[in-house]
Design a protein that fits this description.
The protein has 11 helices and 13 strands. By secondary structure, it is α/β, with parallel strands linked by helices. The protein folds into 3 domains: 31 residues, no CATH class; 194 residues, Rossmann fold (3-Layer(aba) Sandwich), CATH 3.40.50; 95 residues, Rossmann fold. The strands form 3 sheets. A 6-stranded mixed β-sheet has the order 4-5-13-10-11-12, sandwiched between helices. It is globular. The mean pLDDT is 96. The structure holds pyridoxal-5'-phosphate (PLP) and zinc ion. The site of zinc ion (ZN) has 7 residues, from loops. Pyridoxal-5'-phosphate (PLP) binds next to α7 and α11.
């Protein structure tokens, strides 16, 4: 039905493997063909499982769900322009990470996994912890010591073990890899099931536009968990001839941490080594993205580009959205700052879609 394939050496792994990367160190991707027809979904429940035939599920009875997905797509104005924005801050745990966690933890449950480990700068940890709580799976979440207090409180409230690692986000990643030697690694960056959850963003956007693709999408780029998922979704919808072509992907980074923008500008296939500075956009402050080359390739193939935003643009975007009644966290505001910049030069007739990636309450008091 489907299997995993190493993106470096093409070695194949069965769908029920617990490996999180290939012996060669390569990233595992899913080789999966959706059998999906738009006509079938119109009278289904308004959640992401309405695209059931497009989702890799080993065991239907193991699905873990809060009825998530099918978030509203609302027009938001930016001066004389407007864009469609997915309200993905409205998920159970307050960020779009629930899309990925729903598929990944359902898969872990289908495999009979009793305990998982995960590392996160916050929101992925919240999502994995919540879905594990619902599934009755134990989990330890490794976080950088500097993570927002509200996110730590949320992770702990779900009953997850909270393991705080001093140092950088990369130090946290190294710590969890050691733990992953003997515990299932429910990784939002390495595990391809996560990306087949976030791809539902693309399915929903196209359905909500009347089964049409937008001209461009403006998305965050840290580890690219939404961006790469969306790219998979648009690619599948194009292959099935449900849309005529995928949109251009405009990827947004914070100027304080822009290994991918730099790589894009210099024509590099790999993320560039950078000195990371502090940024309020903690969710995308990833200096060494594991799937960096895939993000660069996806953006280039789409005909899109990269935008890096300043701390002051992030603050302005957050205030501007709040003044229209949308309370989003700084990382989400960084994406909107990039959207505002993109709209100032985009052709008038372009249909542009972006996203509110995380709720403002996440970083309140920070
Ligand atoms: C995870 C996250 C992002 C995007 O991060 P990636 O590292 O690209 O997956 C953006 N905004 C918020 C609020 C997030 O939690
Ligand atoms: Zn390999």
């Amino acid at each position: 039905m489907f299997h995993l394939t190493c993106s470096t050496c093409a070695k194949e792994f069965p769908a029920d493997t617990t490996a999180w990367r290939c012996q060669c160190g390569g990233l595992l991707d899913l080789t999966f063909e959706p059998g999906f027809w738009p006509d079938a979904v119109s009278d289904r429940a308004p959640d992401l499982w309405r695209y059931r035939e497009a989702l890799p599920v080993l065991d239907e009875t193991a699905i873990v769900s809060f009825g998530e997905g099918y978030t509203p797509l609302l027009p938001v104005s930016f001066g004389r322009r407007s864009a469609w924005i997915k309200q993905d801050h409205l998920f159970q745990t307050g960020s779009y990470k629930d899309r990925g966690a729903a598929l990944l933890i359902s898969h872990a449950r289908a495999l009979g996994i009793k305990k998982v480990v995960e590392d996160s700068s916050g929101n992925a940890g919240c999502a994995v912890a919540a879905y594990c709580a619902r599934a009755g799976i134990a989990c330890d979440i490794y976080v950088p010591e500097s993570t927002s207090p509200a996110k730590l409180e949320q992770i702990a409230a779900y009953g997850a073990g909270l393991i705080r690692i001093p140092g950088s986000r990369e130090d946290t990643a190294r710590a969890v890899m050691a733990a992953a030697e003997n515990t299932f690694y429910a990784s939002h960056t390495w595990n391809p099931f996560f990306f087949h959850g976030t791809k539902t963003w693309a399915y929903e956007v196209c359905e909500q536009l009347g089964w049409k693709a937008p001209d461009s999408v403006v998305l965050p780029a840290g580890n690219g968990t939404l961006l790469l998922g969306a790219a998979i979704g648009f690619k599948e919808l194009t292959a099935a001839k449900i849309i005529s072509r995928p949109p251009a992907i405009i990827a947004v980074q914070a100027e304080a941490c822009q290994p991918l923008t730099r790589a894009f500008e210099t024509g590099s296939q790999q993320p560039v080594k950078i000195e990371k500075r502090d940024t309020r956009a903690e969710g995308i402050a990833i200096a060494e993205p594991a799937r960096g080359w895939q993000i660069l390739a996806a953006v280039r193939a789409s005909g899109g580009g990269f935008i890096s935003v300043t701390e002051s643009e992030i603050r302005t975007a957050q205030q501007r959205m709040a003044s229209q009644g949308y309370f989003i966290e700084p990382t989400a505001a960084a994406v909107i700052a990039g959207l505002a910049r993109y709209l100032s030069t985009a052709p008038d007739k372009e249909i542009v879609v972006s996203t509110f990636s995380g709720h403002g309450l996440k970083a309140a008091g920070h």
